[in-house]
Amino acid sequence: MSDPQNPDAARPTGAAGDLDADVAIEEPGAVSPEKQTAAEDARATAGGPGAGADVPPPSRWHTMLHQIATGNAIISVLAVLLALLVGAIMIAFTDERVQETAGYFFARPTDMLQAIWDSVAGAYSALFQGAVYNFRRDTFLAGIRPLTETLTFATPLIAGGLGVALAFRVGMFNIGGRGQMLIAASVAGWIGFGFDLPWGLHMLVALIGGLVGGALWAGIAGFLKARTGAHEVIVTIMLNYVAFYLVSWMLRTPGLLQAPGSSNPKTPAMKDTAIFPDLLGPQFNLHFGFVLVIIATIVVWWILSRSSLGFRFRAVGENPNAARVAGINVRNMYVYAMLISGALLGLAGVSQVLGTVTTGFTAGIDAGIGFDAITVALLGRSTPWGTFVAGLLFGAFKAGGFSMQAAEGVPIEIVLVVQSLIVLFIAAPPLVRTIFRLPDPASRRRALPNVSQEVKIK
């Protein structure tokens, strides 16, 4: 039966010079050399280079290198390198010795070049020794103290970054980390100094209380988005202010969070039974909170990669309308995601009051971590282990920045500029690919040969 959409289908095929299209495809030898050459030219034009059958497929090494060059991980690494390069230029420009030698550059150019090298190498060497290992110390334990400081600074950054990253994967932008950290720190701190419980149990109750506090505070934004459509960005920004002024009021009110007999807006010290234990002894600041963020990273990885809840999270993040058609309750996913995200940011606040600052806290206990967590999640590409590594990097910046300022006189603001540039380059992958001449990920797709045009020519 002929196809009403194809008038050529009703044409008889009995003539010797009029071959059927299927026969022409299966038996190309029956086609005249002129028509076969025309078909090959059409194939080359439609499919482009490499579309012909005679071109061998690329090797596994070539494919692997192409995937690396077009992947997200290489963009993150190159963004860090570019930011460090710009930071080196700023360090050189702000160095007094470089400015002095620039005055007679044309007379003795090597003096300025040497000054630039000394300033940049000295600054980044101090950054390394303040963040990883100090070679000037006499013992190994004293030498690794900077590494423990890096891990201590990274602990709340990783926890907060995981919370922001999980919300990103569901298509939500949780920038209420500050408020969620403050509420979690207040609940955990209140339990930590206001109750007498056995060791271990006291710490566990304070930890759970802080996680619940952070989860419920973030859950407000998730509930409002699910039920009323309120944008989570506006809601979480407003909740940051509500949490800050609420905690500030409680810190100034006797009988709530303020230390008895004190007029300062500060809580009493945490009781020893609620404090996180030290991992490497009292001479180091690294505490049990770092173990908790490792566990949290594994849990978030399992949720997103191995659980049905994570599949629904990712489906809603990719296309909520399609997820709704597939039977996923999108509203509930928003609420669940914000609850888990708030609990992770709450872990960041708990690690501050029960691990890092145990002598009592003020309204500045968040220390800007709630906003730094957004940067960490962006650098980690919203993946659990990527966020973990990004948190370590930013922890190293925080730990080494003070050493760089003290040893070389480099302004601490340069470290902040480097962090900001990392975000800038992460947000502009085409810029990084252009600078390093990396292939576009779209080049992975191969153009298929136009079979219809071949059949028409034959």
TrEMBL record:
Localization per Swiss-Prot or TrEMBL: Cell membrane
Mitochondrion keyword on record: no
Sorted UniProt keywords: Cell membrane, Membrane, Transmembrane, Transmembrane helix
Transmembrane regions: 73-94, 115-133, 153-172, 201-224, 233-251, 286-304, 334-354, 360-378, 385-402, 414-436
Membrane topology per record: Multi-pass membrane protein
CC annotations in GO: plasma membrane
CDD domains: TM_PBP1_transp_TpRbsC_like
UniProt-recorded Gene Ontology molecular function terms: transmembrane transporter activity
Chain positions covered by the region annotation Disordered: 1-58
Listed name of the protein: ABC transporter permease
Lineage: Bacteria, Bacillati, Actinomycetota, Actinomycetes, Micrococcales
